[in-house]
Specification:
The complex is a heterodimer of chains A (178) and B (286). With 178 residues, chain A is an alpha+beta fold. Chain A has one domain (3-177). Chain A is built from five helices and seven strands, in the order αβαβαββββαβα. In chain A, helix 3 (53-63) crosses helix 5. Chain A starts with a helix and ends in a 5-residue tail after the last helix. Mean pLDDT of chain A is 77; it is low at 1-20 and 128-146. With 286 residues, chain B is an alpha+beta fold. Chain B has three domains: 1-52 and 152-181, no CATH class; 58-139, Orthogonal Bundle (T-fold); 184-286, no CATH class. Helix content of chain B is 32%, strand content 24%. Chain B contains eight helices and 13 strands. Chain B has an eight-stranded antiparallel β-sheet with strand order 1-2-6-7-10-11-12-13. In chain B, strands 3-5-4 form a three-stranded antiparallel β-sheet, covered by helices on one side. Chain B has a two-stranded antiparallel sheet with strand order 8-9. The longest helix of chain B has 22 residues, at 34-55. Chain B is globular and about 60 Å long. In chain B, 45% of the residues are buried. Mean pLDDT of chain B is 91; it is low at 1-7. The chains are: A alpha+beta (178), B alpha+beta (286). Chains A and B meet through strand 1, helix 2, strand 6 and strand 7 of A and strand 1, strand 2, helix 2, strand 7 and strand 8 of B. Strand 7 (150-151) of chain A pairs parallel with strand 8 of chain B.
Chain lengths: 178, 286
């Protein structure tokens, strides 16, 4: 399993509150690897985009998904598309995803970068979650790529679908004009 | 220790994508470049995506939708993939005396586990109303099928079969708990048995493993339904099945919840099933 993310997460939780019943994290691709897969052979320009209150409201209305973060961790590609690192928050899950959108606003790929599961209440704390966003992805490279193989009942990926839908509307409302 | 040393030398790519309505992980370790391993994972994900397009209940273009719309009116030609899955499903329906049945769509809709797409389905319909003639399928009554209990396993098998020739690599495909490994010997697996994520370890007894349980369902809901009584199985146990292929393991987990004496089915399919209770106690089902 990914020892470092596990320890990092556990220690942070321990510092903030009583240890929860269960915490684990899985890391898959680094941001650089996700770039190679989703937007190969194009130049990327990192842009600092902050959504206004009105834009957040419009995106929420159209996608029916709450906008948790006003900052978008986005890269514009040299062919007019976008590469976005985003975070999706479920009841107990907290998942970092990379999404590529082409110049017509069509989602061309989605990769899960990091999956964390927590029981103990912290997952609802936005500040606690925000500290993970955009961090560590490149550090995961080669640290420990052994993924713990867990067999369990099927977990729905509905939150990801909602998150991707929110990003499509973010493109339609904001990114397409940049 | 030898295995650990060998694994460290190998390059590994682990990816996770959302397919088949769940999280699909593919991990490949081999003495190859990132680019090469990524290409192999791409091929495997594309294959899973292809199977999803055929078997999806929701996709209006899928073959399953085509059958659900028209098979009660006319013979519908289907792909060899759908034929394999339907034949396997019907075989299991026969063996389990109807306790595995892909026609329980109305019960799944009632449980809000599927959206209602079809009206006026015949309440008397069962798997016996599905007729296969060559490459053609027809339904004797107006019914709808959902392959949610079996298609995931098949998709994993197909993706693994694409990668089978790379026997010098370690390949693991995990589609929402349906796991296939090309080199399963000596490997351990974690099985989740509670909504809090508690895990127990089991040896990987065969190349494929599937697990079913109710802990992700809302209280009072379950995808495990007795097709005859329409009663919902609310057991808090977890069932894991090891088999030669994932399609068998996937389908047998559901049957294991409902069939009293399942040993003859398990034996006939060279499978082993384990029950884990909410305290993490493991018992082989015999």
């Amino acid at each position: 399993m990914n020892l470092k993310p596990f320890l990092t997460t556990t220690l942070l939780v321990g510092a903030l509150s009583a240890t929860p019943e269960f915490v684990y994290a899985k890391t898959y691709l680094t941001v650089d690897q996700a770039k190679k897969i989703l937007v190969p052979n194009v130049k990327l320009e990192k842009l600092e985009i902050v959504l206004t209150k009105e834009q957040q409201k419009a995106i929420k209305k159209l996608s029916k998904v709450r906008v948790n973060n006003d900052k978008i961790n986005a890269y514009k590609t040299s062919d007019g598309g976008w590469f976005i690192i985003d975070q999706v928050i479920g009841k107990h899950e907290n998942i970092d995803i990379a999404v590529s959108i082409d110049k017509y606003g069509k989602v061309s790929g989605v990769e899960v970068l990091t999956y964390r599961e927590t029981y103990g209440g912290e997952v609802r704390n936005q500040k606690w979650l925000a500290q993970f966003l955009g961090k560590d992805h490149n550090e995961h490279l080669r640290l420990d790529k052994q993924i713990k193989n867990i067999s369990g009942a099927t977990l729905s990926c509905r939150h990801i679908t909602d998150g991707v839908n929110r990003l499509m509307h973010t493109w339609n409302e904001v990114l397409r004009y940049i | 220790m030898q295995l650990a040393a060998r694994t460290q030398e190998l390059n590994t790519i682990s990816r996770c994508k959302t397919l088949l309505g769940t999280f699909v992980e593919i991990t490949i370790s081999g003495n190859e470049s990132d680019d090469y391993l990524i290409q192999l994972t791409n091929d495997a994900f594309n294959e899973i995506s292809r199977i999803e397009k055929i078997m999806s209940y929701y996709d209006d273009e899928s073959e399953v939708t085509l059958l659900n719309k028209f098979a009660h009116k006319k013979d519908c030609e289907v792909s060899s993939d759908l034929l394999v899955v339907l034949k396997k499903a019907l075989n299991l329906s026969d063996l389990s005396n109807g306790l595995f049945d892909v026609t329980i769509v109305p019960s799944l809709v009632k449980q809000k586990l599927l959206l209602k797409k079809y009206h006026f389905l015949d309440k008397k319909s069962s798997y016996k109303d599905i007729i296969i003639k060559g490459n053609y399928i027809s339904f004797n009554r107006k019914l709808a099928i959902d392959l949610g209990g079996i298609a995931k396993g098949y998709a994993v098998d197909k993706a693994m079969s694409l990668l089978e020739e790379f026997s010098d690599m370690d390949i693991v495909i995990n589609a929402g708990g349906d796991i296939a490994m090309n080199n399963s010997r000596g490997k351990l697996i974690d099985i989740r048995y509670s909504k809090f994520g508690n895990l127990v370890k089991l040896p990987m007894y065969n190349k494929s493993l599937a697990t079913s349980a109710n802990y992700y369902q809302k209280e009072g809901k379950s995808a495990i339904i007795n097709p005859k009584t329409k009663s919902v199985n609310l057991s808090n146990k977890t069932v894991s099945v090891f088999a030669n292929d994932c399609i068998t393991a996937d389908a047998l987990t559901k049957v294991s919840f409902l069939v009293e004496n399942i040993s003859y089915i398990l034996k006939s399919m060279s499978a082993r099933a384990f029950e884990i209770d909410d305290k993490g106690r493991i018992k082989e089902i015999q």
